[in-house]
Amino acid sequence: MSRRHYEELKTEYERDGFVVLRNYLPEDELSQMRAQLEFFHKEVTQQRFRAVGTMKSMDKEHAWFRHYLEKGPHIPLMKFLLEDSLSPDNVSWIAKPEGVTRTLPHFDALGSYRSSPSGISLWIAMDRIDRCNGCLHYEKGSHKREFEYVYPLRDYDEDNTNAFQFEVDPGDAVMHSTRTVHWSIDP
């Protein structure tokens, strides 16, 4: 990625609170990540690859995810967007197969352990996400507003004029401020 592209992404990130990175992972890296996910679910957790729900702190149980969290290709861009060093938190896997409750509007900077007012999250699509299976939504500029520290956000207007809905393909990624409100919908 060129310096100019970094600057364009920074402008977008500061304005909207997130950036969409199309084709972030090339097919070989996506295949490697899928293989590590499958290994994690079969060997580490003794579950099927398509387990339901959320698994957090995978980096504490599997060295590959720990290495990716601390030294992955996302680190330089994240540091550039934040203009700060990073304190990697955790690797999570989120599955939303049919019948699973949608993700309600929230932001990631919740909990008393959050000492910094800034943070950044990386989300990488393993599958196609579109309007038929839940779609991602972000509120542009919400990272500049103050919200109550609760999940889900109470009385949040998902149809506000700054709501942005987008579809992603496997390998696409989103980097968002931990203060940016985001959610999914019921398909």
Task: Describe this protein's structure.
- The protein has one domain (3-184): Jelly Rolls (Sandwich).
- The protein has four helices and eight strands; from the N terminus they run H-E-H-E-H-H-E-E-E-E-E-E.
- It has helices at residues 3-16, 27-44, 63-71, 75-82, and strands spanning 18-21, 53-55, 93-95, 120-124, 136-139, 163-166, 173-177, 182-184.
- The longest helix has 18 residues, at 27-44.
- The protein is globular and about 45 Å long.
- The N and C termini lie far apart (35 Å).
- The model has no long low-confidence stretch (mean pLDDT 89).
List the helices and strands and how they pair.
Layout: H1 3-16, E1 18-21, H2 27-44, E2 53-55, H3 63-71, H4 75-82, E3 93-95, E4 120-124, E5 136-139, E6 163-166, E7 173-177, E8 182-184
Antiparallel strand pairs: 1-7, 2-3, 4-7, 5-6, 5-8
Task: Provide a quick synopsis of the model.
The chain has 187 residues and is α+β, with helices and mostly antiparallel strands.
| CATH homologous superfamily designation | q2cbj1_9rhob like domain
Percent of residues in helical segments?
25-40%
The CATH topology name reads: Jelly Rolls
Helix-strand category: alpha+beta
Number of strands: 8
- The gyration radius over C-alpha positions equals 16 Å
| Overall average pLDDT | 89
Strand content: 15-25%
Largest sheet: 3 strands, antiparallel
The helix-strand sequence is HEHEHHEEEEEE
CATH class: Mainly Beta
Distance between the termini: 35 Å
Number of domains: 1
Overall body shape:
globular
Q: Determine the number of helices (DSSP H or I, runs of at least 4 residues).
A: 4
Described by its quaternary structure, the protein is single chain
CATH architecture: Sandwich
List segments where confidence is low: pLDDT < 50 over at least 5 consecutive residues. Answer: none
In order across it, which strands form the biggest sheet?
1-7-4
